[in-house]
Structure formats: structure tokens, C-alpha cells
Amino acid sequence: MSNQINSEGTPPTFEEAYRRLEEISRKLEDNSTPLETSFKLYEEGRALIALCQRMLDEAERKVTLLKIGTDGISTEEVKIA
Amino acid sequence: MTLFDRGEPPVHSERPSKTAPDIWSVSRLSAEIRRLIEDGLPLVWIEGEISNFKLHSSGHRYFTLKDESAQIACTMWRTRPQPPIPIQDGMKVRLYGRVTIWEQGGRYQFDVANLLPAGIGDLQIAFEALKQKLTTEGLFEQARKKQLPRFPGAIGIVTSPTGAVIHDLVWGFATRYPPAKLFLIPTAVQGDGAGAQIAAAIQAYNRLNLVDVIIIARGGGSLEDLWAFNEEVVVRAVAGSRIPVVSAVGHEVDVSLCDFAADVRAPTPTGAAAMVVPDRRDLLETIAKRSETLTRNLVRIVSLWRERVGAIRDGYGFRRVIGRVGEERQRLDGLSRRMEIAVSSQLSNRISRLQGLVGRVEALSPGAVLQRGFSVIQKPDGALVRTAHEIERGERLTARFGVGGADMAVERKWDE
Questions:
Q1: What is the pLDDT of residues A11-70, one digit of tens each?
Q2: 8 A C-beta contact, residue B95 and residue B112
Q3: Binning pLDDT at 50, 70 and 90, where does residue B327 land?
């Protein structure tokens, strides 16, 4: 798994992964990209594709209920059939 | 008798009798009035305009209903059905109930069992008046509209926690775009207080700053049912939201002021998902295409570099740097091996394509061209001769063939 997406070391969001993939595709179109870089980009691109596909796997149908009281916020996860 | 004698007080015809004093207490009289009125007047509908409205902290409502020439105090107990729209002064309403006597206060009043707006016309007028006012303020201007994010990471929903709407929204978002996290701040969506709750939820999302877009949703209904979404406090909260707001209120035919203030209006709650998130199937298709392009481009880049290195290897002007060509070739071989390791697991068919491309590139290289019977003519300084203009009669030239070469002199030349 490529971790070059963001510097904080947190897993990338779908948007970050997708936009980086777009960027890599653009760079690989460019003939002036050095060969060594092209291989690195290619490998990163393949990892991002796998990541994006995994993120698009069907999700659980759940929603986080936010209850806002005077003493703060409580949350509760609710599943929808 | 003069005119002035008329000032004398009139003599009461019925003085209290000294023999049988019949003196009622205030309570008795009040009870009698109460009996007469409550028995004598049926449950009725009355119509008039509200003034002096007060919602007591106990939940009871107090107001005065009046017309051009009379007024009556009204009470609506907390246990009565919720009015379909928030009560305000100046509102024309129809009340169902009966007159009662409040003996302690010495007053009669109307005990309201039900309250309805005095007709759609009045609501429509209220709607138009507020719309006019907020339009003048610029709340609905197109320039205020914010763009929705392309890939919202988190979506904040404002609706009732029960019913079909929340179910449809969660189902729609989760199936269409799994990466989005879903949040719900539950609120009432009709009746007194609904507007304030909805506005507070929008403000809470703006304060918490954890969602990228807010959806306000409610199923279809009458203008009265949807009235909360025409309340000024809601419209202002929507217009003032820093986070983009999607209004998914009612069916397509139902128009609310919330729709006008929102950045995007969804035709129905179910339709909201399609407007807010991309569809995973489209994304997966795009990603699959991108995957193919990625491989194709890598193969193309490798061919390109082979071609470049090949040109160096075969170039006549670069024999002196043959050593470097060797290095480049070694480097290329090293990279080729890496490429084969990287690609071979999934792309053996791509390799054969690459080899085809390389074959074609080599067919075009100068060495191969010479092998096919073409020659290259050079001047003594190594410059290639492309046109007869470049040479003189008697000039000495060198020809290169597929194998070997020959020195020669120009005997005759023609320019075309």
C-alpha cells in the first residue's frame, strides 16, 4: 500500500486517492517524465486503484445519530436494514 | 320644575326585599352564568385574527381572537392537537371549541379544541410576503449559491429520525457512494417548534464542522405540513450556512422557501443521493479504464526510451560515446528487468505488445534501414547529406551501406 498520499500518515480519503490517481495518469502521459519516475508512478498508481476499488465496495447502511444536548454531543450508530 | 331637576337619580323599582332577602354570592352567580352559557352554546367554529399570542412555558397557548368589532380571549391547552403551523399574531384562523367561564377571573373565554388556518389563501399570502421580503434582502441570489463537493467525505442529514425519508436517504447514499460517512441530527419536521429545531441543526453542523454537505429532507405534504420549511428562521439558517445545503423537501411539485435559499434543490428525498454523490458503478468503470491507460502509458514510455537509446547506439555521429551507449543499454536492461517484475504478474499480454512495439521501433532504426538497401551519404565532417544543394562538384563524400562503406567524389549533380 502506498502511503505517499498525505504527509500526516492518515489513510487517504477516497477523494485524495482518486485525485492522486488522476495526477499520476497525467504524468504518465508526459514523455518527459524520467523512466525511473515512471516506474514509481506506475506502482503507486496500481496501489491507488486497488485502494479506490476497495473503498467503493458496498458499505454498511448506517448513520451516526448526533444528539445535541446542553451538556455536549452524544453519538449513536444506527443501522438501516 | 326646571330643566335642572332632571339630575335626580332614578328610583330603583326593585329594592331588596326586607322580608325574603335573596342575596346571591358571586360564586353562585358565576356558576349560574357558567351553566347557562356552557349548556346554551354548542361547540362551534369561529373565525378571526389572532393577537396577543403567548406560548406559556407550561405548553399552554393564550391569545385573543378578534374581528372588526369584537374580541374573545382564547386558551388552547397543551394537550390539544398541535397546530399545523406556528401561531403568530395577525394570523387568520378558524377555531373549534366552546365558550367557558373562568370564574376566578370573572371572564369568559373560548376553549380551543382545534386550530386551522383560515384558508390556504392566507398561508399563501404569508408565503409570498416572506418570499418577497427575503428576495429583497438578496437571500435567494444565484451568486450566493455554493458548489457541492464532487466527493463528499461526510454528509449531514436533517430530518425526522423515524419514517421512510431517513431510511431512503441512508440506503441511497450507502449503496451509491460507500466512502461517505452519514450523520443525522434528528428534528421534528412539522408543527410548533419544528422550524427552530431545523435551524438549530443547520447551525450545529456549521459549528461542528464535520460534514461537507447538509441535506434537509422531508416527505411530501400539504402547504401546512411543509410550513416549517417556510419559516424565516429556517430560511435564514439555510442561507447563512457556510456548508453547502441541499433542500430535499416534499415532492417535486412542493415548493418551499427553504428550496430557494438552498444551494441545490433535490426533487425528492430519494433523488437527493443522485445529486450529492457520484455513483460507485461509474467510478469503478472510470478506474478500470484508468488502470488500462496506466499500463499502456508505461509500455509506451519504455518503448520511447528504448527508441532513444537505440538512436544513440546506432547514430553515426556518436561512435565516440559508444561506451556511454553501453552504459545506457545496461541501465535500460536493468530497468527492463524491473519493469518485467513489476508488470509480469498481471500483464504478460502487455509484454508481448511491448515486444511488438520494440520490433517496430527497431525496424525504423538507421541500422535496420541500411540493411534494407538504403545508404547514407556523409561529408568529411560527418554531416549527413539530405539534398544536392548541400554538395559541390568534385567534393569528396563517404557512403555507408548496411555492411561497410565507400569514399567517393561528385562527378555531376542535379538539384531536382
A1: 889 999 999 999 999 888 888 888 888 889 999 999 999 999 999 987 778 889 898 877
A2: yes
A3: low
Last residue of a domain, one of B118, B138, B159: B118
Phi, psi of B374 (to 5 degrees): -85, 160
From B254, B278, B302, the end of a domain falls on B278
Which cell goes with A30? Answer: 508526459
Choose, out of A29, A35, A36, A51, the residue to mutate when testing the contact with B (most B CBs < 10 Å): A35
B284 interaction partners in chain A (CB closer than 8 Å): 53, 56
pLDDT score for A56? 92
Residues B384 and B300 in one domain: no
Which residues does B186 contact at the CB level (< 8 Å), separation at least 6?
A65, A67, B159, B160, B161
Q: Is B121 exposed, middle or buried (0-12, 13-18, 19+ CB in 10 A)?
A: exposed
CB within 8 Å of B90: residues ≥ 6 apart: B49, B50, B51
The arithmetic mean of pLDDT across residues B160-183, rounded, is 92
Residue B174: which of A59, A66, A78 has the nearest Cβ? A59
User: Please, are residues B380 and B398 in contact by the beta-carbon 8 Å criterion?
Assistant: yes
- What pTM, to 2 d.p., does this model score? 0.56
Interface contact A21-B183, CB threshold 8 A: no
Of B167, B186, B208, the CB nearest to A80: B167
Chain A 31-50, CB below 8 Å of chain B: which residues? Answer: 31, 33, 35-36, 38-39, 42-43, 45-46, 49
Give the integer Cα–Cα distance in Å for B247 and B245. 6
Rounded Cα distance, B25 and B295, in Å: 103
User: Among residues B116, B57, B56, which one has the least CA distance to residue B91?
Assistant: B116
Q: Which domain holds residue B403?
A: 376-409
Residues B111 and B165 in one domain: no
Average pLDDT, chain B: 84
CB contacts under 8 A, B 289-318 vs A, are 290-291, 293-295, 297-298, 301-302, 304-305
CA distance A76 to B169: 17
Residues B162 and B184 in one domain: yes
